[in-house]
Amino acid sequence: MPKKNKTKYIFVTGGVISSLGKGIASACIGKILEWNGYKTAIMKCDPYINVDPGTMNPYQHGEVYVTDDGTETDLDLGHYYRYTLSPLTKESNITTGKIYRTVIEKERRGDFLGGTVQVIPHITNEIKNGIRLISKKHKVDIIIVEIGGTVGDIEGLPFLEAIRQMKNEEGFQNAINIHLTLIPYIKAAGELKTKPTQHSVGKLREIGIQPEILMVRTEKSLAESEKEKIALFCNVYKDCVIEARDVEDIYEIPLRFKKDKLDRIILSALNLKFKEKLNSSKWEKIVETRKNAKSIVRIGVIGKYITLQDAYKSIDESLKHASIANNVKLELIKIEADTLENKNDAALHETFKGIQGILVPGGFGSRGTLGKIIAAKYARENNIPYFGICLGMQIAAIEFARNVCGLKNADSTEFNKKTKYPVISLLTEQKKIKDMGGTMRLGEYECVLKQNTRAANAYAKKNITERHRHRYEFNSKFIKQFEEKGLIISGIHPKGSLVEIIELKNHPWFLACQFHPEFKSKPDNVHPLFRDFIKSAKHV
Ligand code: GLN
């Protein structure tokens, strides 16, 4: 018999190929469950051996998302944040590396009393502990567990085995499996092909997992007969074959899911009540505004990993939110920083023609920094709104030092250890650190805003908290010199007086922050700095 008031589990796996949007699908499932009144937590299991993605190159992994508690996590947690109210803490992302580390620590302590330590049961038990920890830490009704990778990957097997075991242990109607696959359209045959999905579900069944719900990504609509075929071969009810058609706007997806009654299907499978009428009007308005906005705002993002779509995911999304708030259509122009380095003035003008706002995001290492400095200078001199984030703030400071304060070759000690003017230098607490993983200044820190500044006006309050991920800081020795030349320090971390926000006088909107505001923006709750950046860009 199903137990009352028990946390329910939804396991989301992916098949056929990667990059099907499992993270967004999980987040959107969370959203429709919230519309039904359920408190939901979403977590991600990543089968790779890194303890966390913090030390990975963005080309390998895309953006590293940071939570309030300072955990460096998979970028899917950013999707969870943007769509839902899911708690996001260090428990929300587990990896093979994290699991093995814990098991090996236990083994070294002697916790296994001389037993042989094995994948089953020791690793699978630790995975199950990790998943169940969420319900111990947070009071939620439903936990959505996204399993990274694709069914068939060797490294994903322990995770699949763990969720297979968990479904039995949790009991009837307390845990379900949703499998996301692809139905490719073969142009030459003019047909949608269901075979890869059949194979993927077959592979899951070999492990002992029978999904209740199949979500199939497709570019063309599925005919009833195709749904029937999938249902027959994959052993699921026809109503439980949900078509996940490509959409232009990812924020439309929860509304599609609602239309397809996915919430009812999930909630009935979990023996939970659903609402007859969902109140999604606020979300509908967001999608409508995006669709109907007429005037365009062009924003240039000057980055180092521009070719990789996911490298600046949260920034791209925050710019979208800000455009919704300002009722404009966003045109994102991504510029590889080092391409600016050898351009003369005319060529630079050509590159920035029509660009109404320049954003320099975070980054590490010296490649591309000169190009970013050139972009910051261009924005400052040509009165184009500038938004610097983390490295983007350090770049703004270096540019100001070199070209306004006359400090020749001023630099960050990250790029030039021997610079005569180290306007950006290593944080004191970083000096003794040797390990690279999880040792930056990470997570939420307080910041006090100076009255009558752009920052204070944007937030409309004095004390804020924002999330950080950096090792270097604005060198306070230079504050006086900078202020004399018209730079405003508008945000300070109260303990240790670290400079968190800088602005320029006599410029339409030039603001740069040491923290990452992009981690805290939602389509229905836009971050104030992004909102004001787009607002000023709109008038260029
Ligand atoms: N590399 C810089 C630092 O470590 C900036 C980091 C970032 O942009 N996230 O301080």
From TrEMBL:
Return the similarity comment: Belongs to the CTP synthase family.
Give all residue intervals belonging to the CTP synthase N-terminal domain: 8-272
What job does this protein perform?
Catalyzes the ATP-dependent amination of UTP to CTP with either L-glutamine or ammonia as the source of nitrogen. Regulates intracellular CTP levels through interactions with the four ribonucleotide triphosphates.
| GO cellular component term, pick one | cytoophidium
> Origin organism of this chain?
Candidatus Omnitrophus magneticus
Q: Which residues bind UTP?
A: 18, 193-198, 229
Gene3D superfamilies under this entry? 3.40.50.880, P-loop containing nucleotide triphosphate hydrolases
Q: Where does CTP bind?
A: 18, 153-155, 193-198, 229
Instruction: Note the InterPro entries from the entry.
Output: Class_I_gatase-like, CTP_synthase, CTP_synthase_N, GATASE, GATase1_CTP_Synthase, P-loop_NTPase
Return the PROSITE patterns for the record.
Answer: GATASE_TYPE_1
Protein's recorded name: CTP synthase
Q: What is its EC number?
A: 6.3.4.2
Which residues take part in binding L-glutamine? Answer: 59, 363, 391-394, 414, 471
Q: Where does Mg(2+) bind?
A: 76, 146
Pathway as given in its UniProt record: Pyrimidine metabolism; CTP biosynthesis via de novo pathway; CTP from UDP: step 2/2
Q: Name one GO molecular function term.
A: glutaminase activity
Notes on how activity is controlled: Allosterically activated by GTP, when glutamine is the substrate; GTP has no effect on the reaction when ammonia is the substrate. The allosteric effector GTP functions by stabilizing the protein conformation that binds the tetrahedral intermediate(s) formed during glutamine hydrolysis. Inhibited by the product CTP, via allosteric rather than competitive inhibition.
